[in-house]
Structures are given as structure tokens and as C-alpha cells.
Amino acid sequence: DLSNHFEPDFVRIEKYDEGKVWSAALFDADQGFAYLKRFTFDATEKVANFLGENTESKLFLLTDVVYPRVEAIFGGGDDFRDPLEIDVEEFIGVKSFKAKGKRISNYEVKEVKELEPTRFPEPEEETEKPSEVEIEAEEPNNINDTDLLDEITGQMSLFD
Predict the structure, then answer these.
(1) pTM value > 0.85
(2) If DSSP states are collapsed to H, E and C, what string results for the chain?
(3) pLDDT (tens digit per residue) in 100-147
(4) Domain for residue 12, yes or no?
(5) 45 is in which domain, residue-wise?
(6) In the predicted model, what is the mean pLDDT of residues 12-37?
């Protein structure tokens, strides 16, 4: 639709899915450390800012992969350290998008890269279709009321 207008610095636009879990790696300028967070967005008309109020905070990575893995690469005085591989789903649980997240490391993180996941969600099983049962129309029985009553009560008849 040509009448829609979007901010010039948006990261992603897609249809809202209330159950979708997002994972973000970010630098929190207030704390001076890199954080990982997992969250779902709230249904709202307002713009959702999951980075925090400080304009110096920056996003390393945003993904909607179910079982994401990331690699934190250290920089500055800590660039001699080996990269840290993190299974995000095991590292931190799902919280509100307003939550701070969990600190990746006390060391300076230069970059966070997404790695291939090692596990995937199991495919949803197809719901079984109700089996169709054909019911044949029964031939009308020529049973009178006394025969029906005898059948219900278990009374036997001497003459057929």
C-alpha cells in the first residue's frame, strides 16, 4: 500500500505474531556491556523499543530463529580471548521486551555473529482427520410395541 509511511531506520517489518520469540544481542550504553535477551512483543500501536532509552545503545543482532546460537567476538583489550559460542535458548529465558537481558560477558564484546542452529523445532504433527463412518439406512423393522418392550427387558417369546 503506497499510503503507508515507515520510519527510515526500521530493522524489520512483518505481520505480528503474538507467540513469536525474538532473540537480540545488543550493547547497553548505560551499563557498558553486551547483553542477550529473548522476548515477545506486546500487541500495541506504539513503536516498540527493545534497546532501552539510551540512544548510544546499539543492536548487534536480531533473530527469530527458534533455537539460535551466537558467537561473541571480543575486542579492545580483550581481543586475545577466544570467541564465545552461546546457545541463546539455554542462556536466557523469554522475558518482556522491556527487560534488560543477560550480560554476555564482563569482557569487551566487539561483535556478535549468528551461527547455524544445531537443533530445530519438531514439525507439528498433522491433526488426525475424523474418520468418516458410513451408516447404512436400516430396513424398517416390523416390531410391535410388545415385542420392543420384551426385547428391552430381555423377555423371551415362546412363539416366533
Answers:
(1) no
(2) CCCCCCCCCCCCCCCCCCCCCEEEEEEECCCCEEEEEEEECCCCCCCCCCCCCCCCCEEEEEECCCCCEEEEEECHHHCCCCCEEEEHHHHCCEEECCCCCEECCCCCEEEEEEECCCCCCCCCCCCCCCCCCCCCCCCCCCCCHHHHHHHHHCCCCCCC
(3) 999 999 999 999 999 998 888 887 776 666 666 666 666 666 667 777
(4) no
(5) 22-115
(6) 89
